[in-house]
Every structure is written in structure tokens, then in C-alpha cells.
Write a structure and sequence with these properties.
The structure holds two protein chains of two kinds. Chain A is α+β, with helices and mostly antiparallel strands. Chain A is built from 24 helices and 49 strands. In chain A, the strands form 13 sheets. In chain A, strands 8, 9, 12, 13, 14, 15 and 28 form a seven-stranded mixed sheet that branches. Chain A has a six-stranded mixed sheet with strand order 40-41-42-39-33-43. In chain B, the strands form two sheets. Chain B has a four-stranded antiparallel sheet with strand order 3-4-5-6, covered by helices on one side. Chain B has a two-stranded antiparallel sheet with strand order 1-2. In chain B, a hairpin with a 7-residue loop joins strand 4 (about 50-55) and strand 5. The chains are: A alpha+beta, B alpha+beta.
């Protein structure tokens, strides 16, 4: 049944009908409709089910405060859940699905929850479903998850594009109602760079709907003229469909522009995130009407009075034919008049005040509307749609009630300024007794880098309620912001009168003495099904803080973040505590004002450009030679090179055996390379490393350990002394930037008088390890350098030309084999790699990856930062005492390593582990000892840090940290796997292969 | 998102250009210090409601460490200065006192 009126609808174009699908029904709307107005126009009031009780729910609001009308929008790669029908512009072909209904909106089996609501009180998540334990996992959790499911996550990657914009302005004005327009006009005239953002597609806000007159003309005309004036100013940027999402430190703000939500498929980016720096911010964000709490205030057809007026005036839609209006203020009479003007029936106005004969009420009565003063709605009749209301006295308990037939109810509980953006960065609020709302306290504004106020509010957002006051306040805010930004401004406001309105009366429960049966049907938070009775119960159970009550009852925790419910909930909380509302305070307002898409946050940073990839000089060669990649920091390193038909395990085993038996080749370019230079370089490295580096001779290498001031091992690597005052420090692959920063910190902030300079040359050099018994033969075949044992002994380095390529060769080994690491200028690294591959064919040269590297180092008992260390391990735990100088007075970490806990004999220490059956121990498995701890868990005595199948030895090998480990050689201990099976392993030396180091020193 | 001026290169740095480094003007205690001194050096950090001296590195810029005097409550920045000092410079202290006459100085 169409509810579209014959006349009216200032935002729709009746010449342009649009087709859309909701819940599999093909429906029609008009260009200019929102999805909500189109649904109402098509007679669809019931649009969703509530989250907890699955009660039928209809459209309540006309803007971002809407709690109920959430839909899944689009399909496939364009699907997005939790979209608000009230802020979704209609387009031809739009497809939407309701979210919480199963199997259908009309018949929802989960609605039994409603009968059970007695058993689902406030905090029911915490109270119930705990015992018996197994029930939680297998019964309660699956049922709750099914019942409480809101939008379903999309199943396909988002097909749309997004982008970020950066803007720097003098004055940012958020909100394009008459206050925002006036503030922007004032600021624009001052010459300041102004950005004005409006979240909807339309400028002017509520003023035209409310029938305001400005400068002696209809609001629409003033808005059009002001907009034209702003567009003519080169220093002013206007953006509609752009929401002020958040205000942050020092004038940073986020704008969320919905560029193409209403024109899908036109090739434009869908959303644009504006990252704004503003000297001054003016929030002209308006106000949101509050619901009233009466029994059945959630039945479809009960709507905010202002929203009802929006639907009639803006979209030519009748939310009902026969509308009861219930209010505690004069503004709702504007809705009464709008309904009558549209030819709809208003059987009665229920006014909570004892007297109501202000100008607006009088006009309504003059036009024949009955007004019941001091009255209340006792309850709403109807389940899926309002069928009528029962009226009673406002100060009573409810009683029998007098029935009134109607199909909709318009409610108004007063207005709350939108203070979110003001509050995001610390703006404080005051309570107005007159209007029963919180409003910004200009004396406690958010402050910027100079201690200046950088956020101002304008219009109703300041608490100014009349049109004239709004414009004056906005002009003043625009002028003040311009002056603070360094411009001369005049606060000349457009002229308008403040309509005469009688005082409102705060009404938090209707009727005031309502019995529990009624209170348990008065909804505060529609989306989360929080009722008046829930807040009262929470107070009875001892909840006094507003923040805790919020979390206990879930009031205001839905994706509308309590835009409708918070003040009403606070008032109930205050009343139940016997406190004043300002003493109870509000919960914290956090950005974003409304949910923004993840796509907009990611912007362009997705896929390949999500994070820049660091490539070694041989990256492309690896790619073309069947590499299986492993991410290491921002690098990709070859994990292994599987041949056709070979799995990773087989490839790794082949690479290890080829290297051990003949010749392997490793791209070690990711190794961190820091040059430390200067007269004090040796002294500096003595402080950074646990060993003494100043005694290292030029031409020699030394393995070193770095600890943090807590004494824990942080990085390791080989240091080569290049000349008297130059060292080359190798760091772990992921560690170069971190260690460079660490060195700079100490040089700049502690020993700033030491003459040392550090440069990170990691990417200037390619590094290639030539490893295996035939390594020397290969280098000799290339020729040009003497790499004999005598000329280049173990732990030495030389410079020269190898087959015409300049190299620095380090004789160091991380595999236990004869090994040369060739450092080569990055531009020539690939050429050298190719020469080595060609020349090495006669020894079946085999490129190997990180897994083979790890296995070979584990076979040798070499530790790996991040495997054997986890930020709580000191070198002494790892049997590395030999690398700690006893002669030095100080090094970073030395004092910490003297602390009692660090010298305790009870620390877990490094050992090798061999399973009795030769299997591979599970990584990270814990060894169990005698007895149990305070939680009834078995005591642990050690854990596995590295574990591999050793192709060389044909069995599983592992390293681990074990209590008194080195003193327990040969002992068998028990490890428990995640499937609770027990694996026995013998404690052995961590050096499994070539314990005397004969192979690397040949 | 804060803006702090790097005292080395003069750039007004967006917070994304900076890396935080915790409390400024710590005195290092090494071997020979008592357990109490060393514990305080490692772990005891000020967390004032008000004026705080802190370390920042212009990490995505000139790479220099610098120090800032900032209010943790109002976000007001009283000044930034080079890290090669053990005490806040006199002009920074004067700037704080000018704004906050009751400030008792760095404790």
C-alpha cells in the first residue's frame, strides 16, 4: 500500500521513479529519496528485527541517529552490511536485505526471545551460560551467536576503490545547516581558507522543514543565496555528502566523503577520507531529538516527531494516516501542523506538561486538534505495527487507560545538541536545566599547541534553540575562529526571529510512576534492546558509574553509539541513584561520529601498495626460478626453491644435503649492514656489544651480541673492522633499522660528545654466501683473489676483484661448512650471482633458502634471534658467556645481568634435545615436571625454541631452554603436544654436527 | 595527532613523522649502582597530569632525537629543544612558568 502523498516532497523528483529491491520485493521510489523514505513511501514500516529479542522494528529517525533500519546493501563483491537506510540515498537497482530476521521479517522464530526476556536481564551475558562449562561452547554460544548476529560479513574482497585526501585550512566548518552556512560565510568573508562539510546531499539542514524565515524570506531562498555566495569565494571549499568523522590533537580532523555511494559503478572512488589540519574548527552539527520512554515505544510506527515531519515535508511520505503525537515540548506541534497540512489525521496530542497554550499549540488547537495536557501514553497497542495507544495521567502508575485508535505515534522528548566532535579532543559539557540537555562549555574547549581553544560550536550545537539565536551564534563562532586563525572578521548575522516556545518539561518515564510491567517494555536503546527496567536493575545490583553501567547493560554500545538512548539512559540512571544528571555525567564520545568504511581508512593502501616491498638485487632471479617466498620484515626471502613435483620439505632436504656435500649458494643481501666510523667507534661498540670490539684487528671479524638495558639479548651478528676507525656491523635481517635507531639514540642522547658516525648501508650492498666443501674451488675458478686458508683464514676478510667484480669477502660461517660471504655493490650483485651459478655447475651448485639456512645453523647449535630469544633471554642462558667480556667495566645490559634474578641458577638454559624415536618435537612445546601450579596445571620445566628434521643426521633435532638443562645431559624429559600426547626427549649438547668445528676451518 | 617542531631541521612535524621515546632527561645508571637506583632508572617513569618532558625522534625525517615540553592535559607545547642537554633550557622553563605560574618545576 503506497503511503506516498499526492503533494509535497521538496527533495524528491516525481518525474524520475527508481526501482529497488528490499527483502526480495520489487519496490518503487523517486530520485532524491533515501532508502528509508522510499521504504516508507512503499508502505514498508517493519524493516528489521531487534538484536536481542528479535522484536519487530520500524524506522524511527530520518538521519544518522537511526537505530533500527540497518540493512545489508548490494551483492557479491559490492555487499556491505549494517548500512543505515536513513542515510542511504536511493538509486536505480539498489538491493537491500534486512539483517536480523530468520526466516523472514514477518515470522521470525527467534522472536521467542521476547517471551524469554524475563530470563535475559541486564548483564545476562555475565550472569548466565557459565555452568556447566561444556554447555557454553556447544549450546549457548552457537545459539547466542546465531540469534545476536547483526550484519553478515562480506564474502568477497571489496571491488570498490577508495582514496585519501589531505587538506590544510584556516577554518573547518562541520555541518551545512543554516548555522554552518552562516559560520562559513562569516569566515569566508574574512579571507580565511574555509572548508565546509555537510554529511547529507542537501544544504540547509532542518530550517526549511521547520518553516524558518531568514532575512525576511523562506529559509530555502536564503540557503540558495548563501550557497551561491560561498561558491563564488575562491577561498571556500564546499563538500556535501562529507561527514566530520572525528576531531583530534592540534587541529587534526577526519572527513568522510561518500563520493559515489549513490552512483555505484560510475568508476569514481566510492569513499574519500579527508585528513585535515585546521587552525580552527567550527562544529555546526545541530541537535538530535530524544525519544520518550513509554511501554511499546519500539513498535513499528512509533517515530521521532521531527523525523515524521521530515518524511512528510521532504519526501511527501505519510508515515501513518492517523498519528498520535506525544511530547513534552512545543517543537512537536510543528509536526502536528505539518501532518494536518498534508491532510493527515491527528486524533490527539498527548502533552506531558500541565499547560500547553503556547503559540504553536494554540495554532494546532485553532485548527481543531485535541490536546491532552498532563497526559501520558500508558502503552502502545500492536505488535508489527501500531494499532492504537492507551492514554493515562502523566503522574500516575498507568491504570486502565483510555484507548485511542491510530497507526503511528510521533514522539518528542526534547533535543540534545550533537556534541561529539566538540568532545572528541577534550571539550567539556554543561547541563542545561531549561532544555534538559548537555551542551558545550565554551570556557573548557579543546586546546591546541599554543594552549588556544581550537574548536567552537555554532547554532543548535551550542545549545542555541531559535533561528535568530542560531544565526547570531554561528556568525560569532565563524568570526572568532577567523580571528584566531589570524584574520579580521565581522560577526554580522542574517536576521531572523526566535519563534516563541513554551518551556519543555523533562520526562524520563511515562507515566512517572509506571509499574514494572510497563517499565520492562520501555525501550531506551532500540538497537541493543536495553529497557528502563534494565538500567534500574543494574543500579540495584550496585552499578553506579555511567561507564560501567553502559558496559553491563550494553546501553549505547550499538553502532548508533547511543545517539538516541544515552541522555534518556543517563536520566534513568541518575534517578535510580538519587543523583543529579550532571553528577552522573556522560560516557566518552569517541570518533568516528558514525561508522566509516574500512575501505576509506585503507585508502589506496591495498594489494601491492599496502606496504612497500624491499627487494634484493637477486629478487627477480628467485622469482623466475621457482622460489617459495618467506616474508622477513619488509623483505621477501627465498624459503626454498622446489623443483617440479617436489614439496617444500623435499626441496629443503635437497638444498641442505647439496650444500653439506658439495656447494650451496645463499642470497644473504637482507643482512643488516651498519658502518660505524670515527675516533671513538671502538669505544662506542664496546658499550653496545657484550664483547670487546675495540681490540679487533683490521682485517678480522668477530661475532658479537647486543643487549638492551634490561640485559636481554636483542641482536647478534658479525662485526668486521675495516680500518683503524671504521667498523662494519652486521645485524639480523629484520633488525638493521631498529639497531641503527638504537645506535643513534645512544650517540645523540647519551654520549653526544663521542666522535662517531653511523650509516645504514644495508641496501648499498648485495651479499652472497658461497657455502660447502667446494666453496674455495669455485672462487679459485673465478679467479682474481687468493682465498686460501693462509691468505684468508677463518674469521678474516679481504677486498679485491673476483673475475672483474669488486668484492669484499668475509670468511664467516653460519652453516658450519667452509663458507665465504661475498659483499658486492648492489648494482653488480646479480652479475656475480650469475657468474657463480655458471662456474659452479661442475659442483652442482644449489641455491638454498632460509629454511635450509635455519636447519644448518640448528645442526651446529647456533642461536637465532627470535627463536632462542624472546625478549626475556640473556646471553648467559644460551651458553654464550664466552662472548661476554669480563674485562669491560660497562656495556649496555651489564648492570641488569647482575640483578639477582639474572644470576639465579634456576634460569632455563639452552640444551639440545633428541626424541627417543627420532621424530620432530612440536615447536614451542613445553616440558612438564612434577606437581601442579596454583591453577592446577602441570609445572613446566622447559620449552622447545627450535625444532627441525635434520636431513644431514636423518632424525629430528631440537634446541630448547630447560631448567638446570646443561647439568642434566642424558636425562630424558617429557614434552606435551597440543593434542596432549607425551613425547620423550633426551637432553644432549646443542651442537649436533661437527662439534669441533673442523669443517668450517679448512 | 600532535605537531612538534624539530629543533634541528625546523620542520613542523606531523606525529606520523615522529617516533616516541618516552621520558626525557633520564640519568643512566650502570655497573656500581644500587638495586634501587637501577630499578628506578629502568622502570620508574613519570606520568604527570600536566607538564611532561619527553623524547621524540624525527624518524621519518632528519633522524635526530629531540626533546619536547608538553602538557598531557591541554596538549599545549611549551617548546622543543635539542637532546644534548641534561636539563630543560632556561627559555623552556620560562615559557612554562609564564603559562603556568603554579608549576613547581621538574621534579
Amino acid at each position: 500500500m503506497s503511503m506516498r502523498l499526492e503533494q509535497g516532497g521538496r527533495l524528491i523528483n516525481r518525474e524520475k521513479p527508481l526501482g529497488f529491491v528490499f527483502d526480495s520485493n520489487r519496490l518503487k521510489g523517486f530520485e532524491g529519496d533515501t532508502l528509508a523514505s522510499a521504504l516508507l513511501g512503499a508502505g514498508k514500516m517493519l524493516v528489521n528485527r531487534s538484536y536481542k529479542y528479535h522484536r519487530p522494528r520500524g524506522i524511527v529517525a530520518s538521519g544518522p541517529e537511526e537505530p533500527n533500519a540497518l540493512v545489508g546493501l548490494g551483492q557479491g563483491a559490492w555487499f556491505e552490511p549494517d548500512q543505515r537506510a536513513t542515510t542511504t540515498e536511493l538509486f536505480d537497482g539498489l538491493t537491500a536485505m534486512p539483517q536480523n530476521a530468520w526466516p523472514s521479517l514477518g515470522f521470525d522464530v527467534m522472536a521467542v526471545n521476547g517471551w524469554m526476556s524475563k530470563f535475559m536481564p541486564a548483564g545476562f551475558y555475565y550472569k548466565t551460560f557459565i555452568w556447566p562449562r561444556a554447555f557454553w561452547k556447544h549450546v549457548y554460544e552457537p545459539v547466542i551467536r546465531e540469534a545476536a548476529a547483526s550484519g553478515r560479513p562480506p564474502q568477497e574482497p571489496d571491488a570498490d576503490k577508495y582514496e585519501h585526501f589531505y587538506a590544510f585550512v584556516d577554518v573547518l566548518v562541520v555541518g551545512g545547516g543554516i548555522a554552518g552556512l552562516q559560520a562559513a560565510l562569516t569566515a569566508g568573508k574574512s579571507g580565511a581558507r574555509v572548508l565546509l562539510m555537510e554529511q547529507t546531499a542537501h544544504w540547509g539542514g532542518r530550517a526549511p522543514v521547520d518553516g524558518a524565515e531568514i532575512d525576511g524570506k523562506p529559509a530555502d531562498d536564503w540557503i540558495a543565496e548563501t550557497l551561491a555566495a560561498l561558491e563564488a569565494m575562491e577561498n571556500v571549499t564546499l563538500r556535501n555528502r562529507t561527514m566530520g568523522a572525528g576531531v583530534f590533537d592540534h587541529g587534526y580532523a577526519l572527513g568522510y566523503e561518500r563520493v559515489a555511494d549513490h552512483t555505484p559503478g560510475d568508476g569514481r572512488v566510492r569513499h574519500r577520507l579527508w585528513r585535515i589540519r585546521a587552525k580552527q574548527i567550527v562544529t555546526a552539527t545541530g541537535a538530535i531529538e530524544r525519544p520518550l520512554s513509554f511501554a511499546g515505544n519500539d513498535v513499528p510506527g512509533v517515530m521521532l516527531a521531527s523525523a515524521m515531519r521530515d518524511y512528510v515535508v521532504n519526501y511527501g511520505v505519510a508515515p501513518g494516516r492517523k498519528v498520535v503525537v506525544v511530547t513534552n515540548n512545543d517543537d512537536a506541534y510543528r509536526t502536528v501542523l505539518a501532518l494536518i497540512d498534508a491532510g493527515l489525521e491527528v486524533p490527539v496530542v498527548v502533552d506531558a506538561r500541565e499547560r500547553s497554550d503556547g503559540p504553536l499549540a494554540s495554532e494546532a488547537m485553532r485548527r481543531g486538534v485535541a490536546v491532552e495536557c498532563g497526559a501520558a501514553i500508558m502503552k502502545v497497542k500492536g505488535k508489527k505495527r501500531v494499532e492504537g495507544v492507551m492514554l493515562c495521567r502523566g503522574n500516575g502508575t498507568g491504570g486502565a487507560g483510555a484507548p485511542v485508535e491510530c497507526d503511528a505515534v510521533a514522539m518528542s522528548g526534547g533535543w540534545s545538541p550533537v556534541v561529539h566532535l566538540w568532545s572528541h579532543c577534550g571539550g567539556k559539557l554543561k547541563w542545561s536545566e531549561e532544555n534538559a540537555h548537555f551542551y558545550p562549555d565554551p570556557s573548557r574547549a579543546p586546546t591546541g599547541a599554543q594552549g588556544e581553544a581550537f574548536v567552537r560550536t555554532a547554532g543548535i550545537a551550542s545549545g542555541a534553540m531559535g533561528t535568530g539565536s542560531v544565526l547570531k551564534d554561528a556568525a560569532a563562532a565563524g568570526a572568532a575562529a577567523s580571528r584566531s586563525a589570524g584574520f579580521k572578521a565581522r560577526a554580522a548575522a542574517a536576521k531572523a526571529a526566535d519563534a516563541e516556545e513554551w518551556p519543555m518539561k523533562p520526562v524520563w518515564v511515562m507515566p512517572e510512576q509506571a509499574l514494572p510491567e510497563l517499565r520492562s517494555k520501555m525501550f531506551l536503546d532500540f538497537q541493543n534492546d536495553v529497557k528502563v527496567a534494565d538500567i534500574q536493575l543494574a543500579v540495584q545490583e550496585g552499578y553506579e558509574s555511567v561507564e560501567l553501567t553502559k558496559r553491563y547493560t550494553t546501553l549505547g554500545m550499538a553502532n548508533d553509539q547511543g545517539k538516541l538512548s544515552n541522555i534518556n539512559g543517563l536520566a534513568i540512571l541518575a534517578d535510580s541513584l538519587g543523583a543529579e544528571i550532571p553528577q552522573v555525567g556522560t560516557t566518552t564520545f569517541r570518533p568516528p561520529y558514525q561508522p566509516i568504511s574500512f575501505g576509506s581508512i585503507a585508502g589506496e593502501a591495498r594489494g601491492e601498495i599496502f606496504q612497500p616491498l624491499r627487494r634484493t638485487p637477486m629478487h627477480d632471479w628467485h622469482e623466475h626460478n621457482g622460489v617459495a617466498w618467506e616474508p622477513v620484515g619488509h623483505w621477501r626471502r627465498p624459503y626454498c626453491y622446489p623443483k617440479p613435483g617436489e614439496d617444500h620439505e623435499a626441496a629443503v632436504a635437497r638444498e641442505v644435503l647439496a650444500t653439506r656435500n658439495s656447494l650451496g649458494l645463499l642470497d644473504a643481501s637482507t643482512l643488516g649492514k651498519l658502518v660505524v666510523k670515527g675516533p671513538d667507534a671502538g669505544r662506542f661498540l664496546d658499550m653496545l656489544y657484550t664483547n670487546k670490539m675495540s681490540t679487533l684487528k683490521p682485517g678480522k671479524c668477530r661475532y658479537g651480541l647486543m643487549c638492551n638495558e634490561n640485559g636481554f639479548l636483542s641482536d647478534d651478528g658479525v662485526v668486521a673492522r675495516l680500518d683503524e676507525d671504521t667498523f662494519l656491523c652486521h645485524t639480523t635481517s629484520g633488525g638493521a633499522d631498529r639497531i641503527h635507531g638504537w645506535m643513534e639514540d645512544w650517540l645523540q642522547c647519551e654520549w653526544w660528545d663521542w666522535k662517531v658516525y653511523v650509516a645504514n648501508v644495508t641496501e648499498q650492498w648485495g651479499q652472497i654466501a658461497v657455502v660447502g666443501p667446494n666453496a674455495r674451488k669455485l672462487l679459485e675458478k673465478l679467479g682474481g683473489m687468493d682465498v686460501s686458508k693462509e691468505a684468508l683464514p677463518f674469521m678474516g676478510w679481504v677486498e679485491g676483484e673476483l673475475d672483474g667484480i669488486t668484492v669484499r669477502i668475509f670468511r664467516i660461517s653460519f652453516s658450519g661448512e667452509l663458507s665465504y660471504e661475498l659483499a658486492v655493490p648492489a648494482g653488480e650483485a646479480m652479475a656475480l650471482w650469475s657468474k657463480l651459478l655458471v662456474a659452479g655447475r661442475e659442483w652442482s651448485i644449489t641455491p638454498y633458502g632460509t629454511e635450509a639456512l635455519h636447519i644448518m645453523r640448528a645442526e651446529k647449535g647456533f642461536i637465532m634471534i627470535g627463536d632462542e630469544t624472546d625478549g626475556t633471554v640473556i646471553p648467559q642462558d644460551l651458553g654464550l658467556g664466552w662472548a661476554i667480556s669480563k674485562k669491560k667495566d660497562d656495556y649496555l645490559g651489564k648492570r641488569a645481568q647482575e640483578r639477582s634474578h639474572m644470576v639465579s641458577p634456576d634460569r632455563w638454559k639452552l640444551v639440545g634435545l633428541e626424541t627417543l624415536d627420532g621424530s620432530v618435537l612440536p615447536d614451542g612445546a613445553y616440558a612438564v615436571g612434577k606437581g601442579v601450579n596454583g591453577n592446577g596445571q602441570r609445572n613446566t620445566i622447559g620449552r622447545v625454541t627450535s625444532t627441525y628434521m635434520s636431513p644431514t643426521l636423518g632424525k629430528g633435532i631440537a634446541m630448547g631452554l630447560v631448567h638446570h638443562g646443561p647439568d642434566r645431559m642424558g636425562e630424558v624429559i617429557k614434552f606435551v603436544a597440543t593434542d596432549e600426547s607425551v613425547i620423550e626427549a633426551k637432553i644432549v649438547s646443542p651442537v649436533f654436527y661437527d662439534p669441533d668445528g673442523e669443517k668450517q676451518d679448512v | 595527532m600532535l605537531i612538534l617542531q624539530c629543533p634541528y631541521c625546523g620542520i613542523q612535524c606531523d606525529e606520523t613523522e615522529l617516533a616516541p621515546g618516552g621520558e626525557a632527561h633520564l640519568k643512566r645508571y650502570g655497573p656500581g649502582s644500587t638495586d634501587e637506583e637501577f630499578e628506578a632508572y629502568l622502570f620508574e617513569r613519570k606520568n604527570p597530569l600536566g607538564v611532561h618532558f619527553e623524547r621524540w625522534r624525527h624518524a621519518n625525517g632528519c633522524g635526530k632525537w629531540f626533546l619536547a615540553a608538553r602538557s598531557t592535559t591541554t596538549l599545549e607545547v611549551f617548546g622543543t629543544y635539542k637532546a644534548q642537554t641534561t636539563e630543560p633550557p632556561a627559555e623552556i622553563v620560562a615559557a612554562i612558568k609564564a603559562k603556568l605560574p603554579d608549576w613547581e618545576g621538574r621534579q
